[in-house]
Amino acid sequence: MKTLVVMDSSKRGLKTSDLELLGYLEEKGFEVSALALGEEPENFKKDSLPLNLKSFFFHEDLSFYNPLAYVEVLKKQLQQTQYSLILSTASCKTQDFFPYAAATLKAPYINQIKNLSVEKDGSLKIIKSLYSGKLLGHFQIKKSPSFLLVQNNQLRGAWKTGGEPIALDLVLPKNPIQHLKFKRPEKQVQDLSEANIIVSGGRGLEKPENFKLLEDLAKKLGGEVGASRAVTDAGWQPYSRQVGQTGKTVSPTLYIACGISGAIQHLAGMQGSKVVVVINKDPEAPFFKKCSYGLVGDLFVLLPKILKSLE
Predict the structure, then answer these.
(1) Which residues touch 219 (CB under 8 Å, ≥6 apart)?
(2) N or C terminus of the chain: which is more exposed, having fewer CB within 10 Å?
(3) Do the beta carbons of residue 32 and residue 5 sit within 8 Å?
């Protein structure tokens, strides 16, 4: 099954979850190639590139997100090579231009994918999340090409290195969208979907100043700070830190939830976490039914003790 993995490329490098998806497909025996799109990474060195990274396209029109340019590159790529599947992991970009590309090419599109496998008869079986993670849906693809968007860190494998990709020679159409200004936040935040450890806070922190406790804990653990929607709506934290159905979908190894009740909308964004620790003074908080470990108590008492023990 000829498969193309679309990799998001930025100055910092290729997205880790994309690389792990490529490794997973390699291990499962897919006939897979990868295409890197976006900005040229600062560490784009041939000796460390994925073996199956066959091509890349870096262009000034991709420095600022432009869905028309991304879709145009994919259309040109599909004209040259007939792929059955086009895959990537979920991001603010792919969740926008993947369905747009599928609609443009009149192709099937499935997102929120948690697992995929090839059956004995050669058909592709897909398992995806439905209704904010309350149900799992089973699907089969019967048309190609098909666009599939995988949940971050769900399909993980070790990718091979040693690739020598070629630069695509494409002329993009004139961009009808004019970029006027780009304002960066005062404090740069790592993409939460790439974080291995996340310490999230909710309304139980009572005021924005108390997020210093979470920042200290995240720093000690080598992780990042997340937040519930109530917190970002109140302006306590930037939206780039929001975890949930309307925020980031994350799948870290360790997720620590402090003062978050555990509404289904929040759980939908972090249900792929490997180990979940909940700290809440309300023993009836729904989050306690979904965690690996639960601490019932005042977070303003427990967090300083945890920080002290980590010293």
Answers:
(1) none
(2) C
(3) yes
* pLDDT 10s digits, 34-70: 999 998 888 787 678 899 999 999 987 787 788 888 9
State how far the Cα of 148 lies from the Cα of 24, in Å rounded to an integer. Answer: 15
Q: Do you know the residue count of the chain?
A: 311
Contact 262, 288 (CB under 8 A): yes
pTM of the predicted model, to two decimals?
0.78
Enter the tokens of residue 146. Answer: 């098909």
Q: Which residue has the tokens 């145009």?
A: 72
Q: Which helix (H) or strand (E) segment is 270 a member of?
A: helix 264-270
219/50 Cα distance (integer angstroms): 31
Name residue, tokens 């990274």: 53
H helix count then E strand count, the chain: 7, 15
